[in-house]
Amino acid sequence: MQSVTTQKFDDVLVVLVDNPPVNALSWHVRQGLNDSFEQGLSDDTVKAIVLRCAGSTFIAGADITEFGKPPQGPDFNAVLNIIEASEKPVVAAIHGTALGGGLETALVCHYRIAVPSARLGVPEVKLGLLPGAGGTQRLPRVVGIEAAATMCALGEPLSATKAASIGLVDRLAGEDSLADDAIAYARELIAIGPRPTRERPLGGDVGIIEQLKAANAKKWKGFDAPYANLACVEAATRLPFEEGMKFERAEFVKLMAGSQSAAQRHMFFAERQAAKIDGLAKDIALRDIKKVGVIGAGTMGGGISMNFLSKGIPVTIVEMVQENLDRGVGVIRKNYENSAAKGRFSPEQVEAMMALLTPSLTLDDLADCDLVIEAVYESMDVKKEVFGKLDIICKSGAILASNTSYLDIDEIAASTARPQDVVGMHFFSPANVMKLLEVVRGDKTAPDVLATAMAIGKKIGKVAVVAGVCHGFIGNRMLSTRQQPAMQLLLEGATPAQIDKVHTDFGMPMGPFQMSDLAGLDIGWHRDPSRVETIRDALCAAGRFGQKNGKGFYDYDEKRVGTPSAEALAIIEDFRATSNLPKREISNQEIVERTLYPMVNEGYYILEEGKAQRASDIDVVWIYGYGWPIYRGGPMFWGELEGAGKIVEALERHGVKVAESLKAKA
Ligand code: 3HC
């Protein structure tokens, strides 16, 4: 089947792109556009041309799978130049999404008509790129510098109605009559003639560029692409069009050749791949989830509940004590009200979501729930007791999920007579914000239960990843291989601030000790101040429990900003003295080798044991669950870039047992 076809409607030629699933600009589409426009331009009976797409969307961009491969087919810019130079008016008819190269194609068309539900944008920045086919030069000429800079640097698409208000869309079509409306519009334009975008005057205030940089400094730390996007828009304001195009090309080539874009493109596909479950039929029938139960109204249970309420799914939340229930429900309301104050919800929406929440003091109220998620205290005995009760109370076919972050799902499932209905659904704190959901597949978890847990994860806006049963699953299992050596490095002479800085300079939101302070140093502490076996014991014995009481590895002010603590350092020194370990200079490179390389190694073990389906799933876990910088593509992708040989050599030098599959790559 041809991916681009033409059809004449009297004096209007309709060029139709049909390249499922998203009409990406694969080489054969570029070829087809080239040929179709040449045909239309040389046919004297054609007076205007409409470019439209079949299927669910207008062109959603360049074909990302072609990036990094030898070029094939006509050059994209050359094709766009033919369209823009047309002496006959060209109309882009937009439905679905016009993204990246798709919007750039629409921008060389002289006019744009769109259905109100369409969305238009240049999301290249999210792939570590910039619109590399004139987007940074043409967009400002159509919508002005402010809107263009914002669209390029943030990559957020606009609704067609918003696009119409800034001149990006010239006319709105009827939702169901785009094909006819576009032809009628093109016919009107025959008398008006073409309007090449490159010739349009450029207006607006270039000051927006510095404003965007200032407003996003924190978010963009470490990223190259937002700045390159802005540099190109800035270039458009001072260079003639052709010069601006050369500037854009040079910046695009630089980004495309760099590791950041490679990492971000890897993550684009990794995220989509994660949804695919090995060995499961694609069309497996899912269980219907109309009502959810959550056990535990603490931080975790409350956050989990919000995910469902926000999507209009009723939740029954159960606590043991009225006071805790009230507090939990109060926190949910407060969170929604805070979001409403920031304009994310209207007060009516807050009330509508709260009306979907049923607080309860008894598990009996979960009888009619289709999915119950347990988020109680992390103790196997407690969990088994809860699941035993759920087994009696819940209706047949209900999915019974545990939010445990470490414990054995199979053992929990064994406390019920329906282990096939039991699955892990491990959310990450804060559960209403973090995008990761680890779906833990037990030995006996039924395929449709697994598939339903993954699907409901997607529905509530999470990126769900399948994990196998092992201590800490994918994420926390790897976390411990970082935390333990970090602690050992303290004993050998590094400071918490030095180690944390290596991690934050790497791009992590916080280092190992900042994370420990946030979680609380007294988690798992034996509560006997006279027993000091670890540095954590020593800190707890001195009443340093972390952020919660303003002192841990760091001292915290009332805004919870931490500064290095002389007292904590003295405690660490004292502890080192009792261990008789000599103090030495620790280099930042050694910190990388001993805290980051072991994570890569553990990732290989996880794959060897089949606890993750694929390496890219591990990357998804670390990016969406722990804030690993997306421009480094996750630990497994980063490990490939570092080089297996280098990692294996360093791990062996530090006495770490290396996974065979990692060794095999070296
Ligand atoms: N190239 C190649 N494949 C693409 C693609 C693209 N631009 N966009 C989507 N796909 C693939 C996906 O990988 C997925 O494949 P799979 O079914 O095998 O997993 C399939 O199309 C469907 O995609 P989604 O699952 O994402 O479908 P949705 O309906 O949820 O979303 C979408 C559709 C909003 C278009 C979303 O796919 C998307 O955001 N795509 C990327 C858009 C983009 O970034 N465009 C810019 C590309 S770079 C560029 O244009 C450079 C230029 O300036 C020169």
Automatic annotation (TrEMBL):
InterPro entries: 3-OHacyl-CoA_DH_NAD-bd, 3HC_DH_C, 6-PGluconate_DH-like_C_sf, ClpP/crotonase-like_dom_sf, Enoyl-CoA_hyd/isom_CS, Enoyl-CoA_hydra/iso, NAD(P)-bd_dom_sf. Its main location: other. Keywords: Fatty acid metabolism, Isomerase, Lipid degradation, Lipid metabolism, Lyase, Multifunctional enzyme, NAD, Oxidoreductase, Peroxisome. Residues 291-467 form the 3-hydroxyacyl-CoA dehydrogenase NAD binding domain. GO terms for molecular function: (3S)-3-hydroxyacyl-CoA dehydrogenase (NAD+) activity; enoyl-CoA hydratase activity; isomerase activity; NAD+ binding. SUPFAM superfamilies: 6-phosphogluconate dehydrogenase C-terminal domain-like, ClpP/crotonase, NAD(P)-binding Rossmann-fold domains. This is 3-hydroxyacyl-CoA dehydrogenase. Belongs to the enoyl-CoA hydratase/isomerase family. In the N-terminal section; belongs to the enoyl-CoA hydratase/isomerase family. It is found in: Peroxisome. The lineage of its organism: Bacteria, Pseudomonadati, Pseudomonadota, Alphaproteobacteria, Sphingomonadales. Pathway: Lipid metabolism; fatty acid beta-oxidation. It comes from the Bacteria. One of its GO terms (biological process) is fatty acid beta-oxidation.
